[in-house]
Design goal:
two-stranded antiparallel ribbon; globular
Length: 421
């Protein structure tokens, strides 16, 4: 059954190794599995609506496939889904357990908290649940979501059964001190379990993102570049990528993925794009969906990136720990959002960006740039040190400037840095 899931690209592949391969650590292991390295580990609170939706559908598909093979999943955590490019894959081989007719779905509540409820939050309220999810790693509990729902939301059988009714049962159980009983003492016929999984899949497949335009969602079409300048940027990025040959490249401020695509075409093994704007991420996802390109668009607040958290602050690694594998980066139309939009001193912004990868391209827009003027339109200019000269000095202190290029006279500056050696 597991090999069938691998053949269908639903489960990450593996090879069994001798326990001695662990070289003394975890000495009690009976089986050792080695699987291909996933380029970048992401977490649900970094996903866009479309990524979260695809992860949920994939989890249900794995459950249904396992059920047909006489197995079930011992949990329903969203952290067992990762992405190869923009395609979801299940990663926890140890979650599969034998299924016996009558077994209940022991991961039901967890699935609702980590998949269904965040997606309802997206689709019914048009509000991204990422901040909530990051603050509560187990997701959104039904009893927390239910009070926010209106009567019209409960016209859906799925919402009524999996959110409202579940919340009521949980609240009543806690109030009366009742115990639901061990899973082995409860029963759910196989046909009912399969029907529940298929019903959830149909409901989630039909969900659509609610919400209007976002601030930077149309940036790829509404920006200060002439066509020739955009072409010059692509060529500059391509030259860096062709020289660096990165296995993993970060695109900070990826928007709809124009330069992520340029990096892939120039030879980057895989690209993880980061953006603060959910609308831009949806555009990027739609652009690459179904292409099998090694591009993964993730949400990032650069001034407040994902921290190390969970048990012993080690269960979920922070962005800085996970970024250690990045070989190169591009940060285009990005640094002014940190230095001016978020009041981060320019030297600190440069230090953070260059610390993400040993080689890369950073774009510096001057204060005369249209997009920078937009940031300064409703606030005082308290950034006397935001200058091209200061920017070049900060980059030069941290690495070698391989090349530089002005996109136009007095306009945006591209800098290719290399801090290796």
């Amino acid at each position: 059954m597991l090999r069938r899931l691998v053949d269908k690209d639903m489960l990450v592949g593996w090879e069994e190794r001798e326990p001695a391969a662990l070289m003394g650590s975890h000495g009690g292991a009976r089986y050792v599995l080695e699987h291909p390295r996933i380029p970048f580990i992401s977490y649900p609170y970094e996903w866009s609506f479309s990524l979260h939706k695809q992860a949920a559908l994939h989890h249900l598909d794995v459950q249904l496939e396992a059920l047909d093979g006489g197995f079930a999943l011992s949990d329903a955590t969203a952290y067992n889904i990762q992405f190869l490019g923009n395609s979801p894959v299940f990663i926890d081989h140890g979650s599969f357990i034998p299924y016996k007719d009558g077994d209940i779905w022991i991961g039901h509540r967890q699935f609702c908290m980590q998949f269904l409820n965040p997606l309802i939050f997206w689709s019914r309220f048009g509000v991204a649940p990422n901040h909530w999810f990051r603050g509560s790693l187990e997701g959104i509990a039904p009893e927390d979501l239910a009070p926010l729902l209106r009567w019209r939301h409960n016209l859906s059988w799925t919402v009524m059964a999996h959110v409202t009714a579940q919340a009521a049962l949980q609240t009543r159980s806690l109030r009366k001190g009742q115990i639901a009983g061990k899973p082995s003492e409860r029963h759910l016929p196989r046909a009912a379990l399969k029907g529940m999984l298929e019903g959830l899949r149909r409901y989630i497949a039909g969900l659509k993102l609610k919400g209007g335009e976002t601030v930077w969602g149309d940036y790829a079409q509404d920006n200060s570049y002439a066509t020739s300048e955009a072409a010059a940027k692509r060529a500059f990025v391509s030259d860096m990528v062709a020289a660096a040959k990165p296995g993993l490249l970060f695109d900070l401020g990826c928007n709809s993925g124009d330069y992520s695509l340029a990096a892939l075409e120039a030879g980057a093994g895989s690209v993880v794009g980061f953006d603060f704007d959910y609308g831009a991420l949806e555009r990027a996802y739609a652009r690459f969906k179904g292409t099998r390109s090694n591009f993964l668009p993730l949400w990032l607040d650069a001034a407040n990136p994902s921290p190390s958290q969970g048990w012993a602050q080690a269960e979920r690694k922070g962005l800085s720990e996970r970024s250690a594998g990045a070989d190169a980066l591009v940060a285009l139309a990005f640094i002014h959002h940190i230095a001016i939009g978020r009041n981060v001193p320019l030297d600190m912004a440069v230090d953070w960006i260059m610390g993400m990868a040993p080689v890369g391209v950073i774009e510096f827009p001057p204060k005369a740039d249209v997009m920078v003027r937009k940031l300064l339109a409703q606030r005082e200019d308290i950034f006397p040190d935001y200058t091209e000269e200061a920017f070049l000095s900060h980059v030069g202190e941290r690495g070698r400037i391989v090349a530089r290029k002005h996109l136009s006279e007095g306009g945006r500056l591209l800098v290719w840095y290399d801090r290796r050696g």
